[in-house]
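Progress against Task 2.4 (sequence-to-structure conversion) is shown through the following example record, which the project officer requested during the mid-term review.
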Amino acid sequence: MKSDYLPGNRINLLSSGREYFPALLAAIDAAAYEVHIETYIFEDDVMGRQIADALVRAAQRGLAVRVLVDGFGAQGFMRTLGARLIAAGVEVLIYGPNISPYTFRRHRLRRLHRKLAAIDARIAFVGGINIIDDMNVENKPAQIPPRYDYAVRIEGPLLAPIHASMRHLWKLVGWTTFRRRYRRPNFHVDAMAVCGDVAAAFVIRDNLRHRHDVEDAYLKAIADAENEVVLASAYFLPGRRFRQALMAAARRGIKVVVLLQGRVEYSLLHYATQSLYGALLGAGVRIFEYHRSFLHAKVAVIDSRWATVGSSNIDPFSLLLAREANVVIRHHGFAQELRASLQAAMDQGAKEVRSEDWQKKPLLARSASWLAFALVRLMIGLSGYSQKEAAL
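C-alpha cells generated for the chain above:
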C-alpha cells in the first residue's frame, strides 16, 4: 500500500446517517475557516436541505465553503440545492458534468464516488454515506430504515493527506472547467497535533498513480490474516485476484465471512454476484445476505486488528473506474467495535446462504446468474477494458 500509516489519531465509527449527519452538521456549524465536501449524491430531500442550510450559514459567516459533487450521481443538483448554495456564496463544482446514457466508454464511467468532508484542519469525515435521507423508505415495502452504512469521524495527523487530496482534486476539476480560483486556507495542515492512539492511512483510487491502492490494501490484509476476514460490500463482483485471495484464505483455515446485499437494487449486478456463490461456498467462504434494509456499507475487519471504512465497493465500478477513498485503521479497539456492529447486522438483519441451499436452486435461476455475469463482462469490455485488465 502506497499510503503511510500515521499514528496519533482519534477515529470514531458512525453507523448510518442516524449518527453521521448530526456529527457532520455539528462540525459545519462549529467551523471557523473552511468547509469542504465531496459527495457522489447530494439529494434535494429533508437531509440534503439540512446540510445545505448549514453550508449557507457557514458561507454567511465568511468561511470558504466548497462543494464538489458528481455529475451523474447528483444530476439534478445544480437546478435545486446547487443554485441556492452558489447564490449564498458557496463555491460549487461538478465532476464530469457531461453524461451520455448511450455509451460505456471508460472516460464517461469514471465517476467521483468519494464521500469526504474536511472542516478547518480539525475534523474530517470519510465513508460511504451520501448526502441523502436514508430514513426515507417510501415505496420500499418491508424495509426497516435506515440504510445500512458507515462513516468515520477523524481528528489528528490523518487530516493532512485527506485535506491535500481534496484540495488537489478541487484544483484539478477547477482547472478543467476553467474555474481556477481557490481560496487558500488560513491554517496549516502539514503537522496536525496528536490527539489519540489510532494509527491509520488514507487510501485513494484514481486513474493515475493510485489505480490499485484500495484493492492492494485489501489483498495484503487478507494474505496476512491469521484468524478471520469479515467484509461487507453493497456491490460485490471482485476480480479473479480478489476471489482467489478470499478462497485461499478460507482453504488455509481462516474464517472468511462476506455480508452482501440481499435486496435487489440493480438486477444485473445482483444476479451477477450470485454467479460467484458456488465457487466461494465451495472453498469455505460463508455468505450472508442482508434483508433488513438496503445495504450500502463498504467495510472490512481482519483479525480484530485491521479495519477499513470508505466508499469503495468490491466491484469493477469501484476498483477499475471510480475515484474512491477509504481509511485503513490498525487499532484493536476500533476493529472490535466495527466487528461487533457487523455481527449485530448479521444476527438481526441477514440470512446465511448455505452451500446445500444454493445447489438446490433451480438450474434456470443459476443459469440466469451466469448470464448476468457474462453481460457484466461484456459491458466492461465495451467500456474499453480488456479481459486481462478487468480480470473477471
